[in-house]
Design a protein that fits this description.
single chain, alpha/beta, Rossmann fold, Dihydrodipicolinate Reductase, domain 2, 2 domains, nine-stranded mixed sheet, 17% strand
């Protein structure tokens, strides 16, 4: 297939980037989705192993969805999915699915490694297909901007896979922030210190010196997609540990950060950051081999955002901690429970503090002060079902790209800072430029592998 059918140009990016100038929200011009002729949403699943297996079943559970096609580069996963969806047409190449099924589908979920998020989602959006995309939206900052703009321009329904955003805990947290329960917010501390994460998901690297031939069930070239040419190595990239590698994943903050950041971003109505700086583990910082291949197994990122009427000053700091880095002891001690939640957001305000444990209900602190303060109650939300409802003409989704795109840009700017530890990067969102550090430019976008790019992108 010709490259130009599945690529975009740098020139087009420059033409559209101005839509998201700093401080200017994306204006959603799209009309609601439309019901299919058979009264159901005709849907395709791209990526049906791991999290894709979970997503497939979530869409299967919805009576308003008919899954007509499935796709995976691993035929073992594809066969397993086919056993529960025997009538769905099977593909190993998403490009073939798009060519053959464009007239048959209304929507698609994309659950593949980060490095291929943009190229797949962008091409389906161009065909005006509604897109449910796993987080983070993309691997690179510039990809996020272009995909966000495309979703708005083509008028499609979108949903980022931040499923906790639809649940009562995060929604209650957003409302408490917006209601001013803790006064004006002074500082936010986000963390993901999940036990076992370093050992099981964050490889120390570097890359194995020699690879192997991929097994017959795996189309390794399709798995690589836009990424650099790499030799297959078992238990290193596919199926799970690709997140640890610079080529394929976005590190721990790029993954779990999308969940932890969401309620804070919405509650405070945040805009693009002004600057970002990162601290990383010394063993990674001092190893050129590791820095060329893998993300650090721990980092501490600090963004400075412009303040607004919900914050206590003209600028507002947000800090992220993972791996060996933890929030300050005085912050964790604000919580009087048995153990500080390993994955959570803590906001410190002029009248108190708010702890939002990942996947749980928020806690106002100190608890004795807020004992009689009512925590908002919400019905359990279904992130997948709300996407389907929106596609069929209902209310907009909780995590549409116009909302989650700017947040993802900020998070991925943090991963750029990780690549240049100790360097304060000043960010101009309107021009998509990092001021004073030309070497950082290369980390805003990758050069796609031959066969997956045009001359300009």
């Amino acid at each position: 297939m010709a490259d130009q059918n599945y690529s975009c140009t740098r020139r087009k990016f420059i033409q559209t980037a101005a839509v998201a100038a700093v401080g200017a929200p994306f204006i959603i011009r799209c009309s609601p989705g439309g019901r299919s002729p058979n009264g159901r949403l005709n849907h395709a699943c791209i990526g049906v192993g791991g999290m894709g297996w979970h997503d497939l079943h979530k869409f299967m559970e919805d009576p308003n969805v008919q899954i007509v096609a499935i796709c995976d580069v691993d035929t073992d996963y594809l066969q397993k999915a086919s056993e529960v969806l025997p009538d769905a047409r099977k593909y190993t190449d998403w490009r073939e699915l798009l060519d053959r099924e464009a007239k048959n589908i209304d929507s698609v979920n994309i659950t593949v490694p980060d490095h291929n998020h943009f190229i797949i989602a962008w091409n389906f959006i161009r065909k005006k297909k509604h897109v449910y995309l796993q987080k983070p939206m993309c691997h690179d900052v510039e990809e996020v901007r272009l995909l966000t703009e495309a979703a708005v321009r083509y008028g499609v329904i979108t949903q980022l896979g931040t499923q906790f955003a639809s649940r009562p805990g995060d929604r209650a947290g957003v409302k408490l922030i917006r209601d001013g329960a803790i006064g004006r917010v002074k500082h936010a501390y986000l963390c993901s210190n999940r036990p076992g994460a370093v050992e099981n998901y964050r490889l120390p690297g570097p890359r194995p010196p020699r690879g192997m031939t991929a097994p017959s069930n795996l189309d390794w070239d399709l798995w690589l997609g836009t990424a650099p040419e790499r030799e297959y190595s078992p238990e290193i990239y596919h199926p799970v540990k690709w997140r640890a590698w610079l080529d394929f994943g976005t590190g721990w903050s790029g993954d779990i950060g999308c969940h932890i950041f969401d309620a804070v971003w919405k509650g405070l109505d945040m805009k693009a950051p002004l600057s970002v700086v990162a601290e990383v583990q010394e063993s990674w910082k001092n190893s050129p081999e590791r820095r060329a291949d893998v993300w650090p197994q721990g980092d501490h990122i600090t963004w400075m955002f412009p303040g607004n009427d919900r914050t206590d000053s003209d600028t507002f700091p947000v800090e992220w901690f993972d791996g060996e880095f933890y929030p300050p002891a005085e912050i964790m001690n604000l919580y009087g429970g048995d153990e500080y939640p390993a994955e959570s957001a803590m906001l410190v305000g002029t009248e108190g503090a708010l702890l939002i444990p990942h996947g749980d209900m928020p806690v106002l602190l100190p608890e004795e002060k807020f004992a009689s303060y009512p925590v908002p109650e919400f019905d359990p939300g279904n992130h997948y079902h709300s996407f389907v409802v929106a596609c069929l003409g209902g209310p907009k989704t909780e995590s549409h790209f116009a909302q989650t795109g700017p947040m993802t840009e900020a998070i991925l700017l943090g991963t750029v800072a990780v690549r240049l530890p100790g360097t304060v990067l000043e960010w101009n969102s309107g021009t998509m430029q990092i001021t004073g550090h030309p070497d950082a430019r290369k980390y805003l976008r990758r050069t796609y592998r031959k066969g997956w790019k045009t001359k300009d992108f």
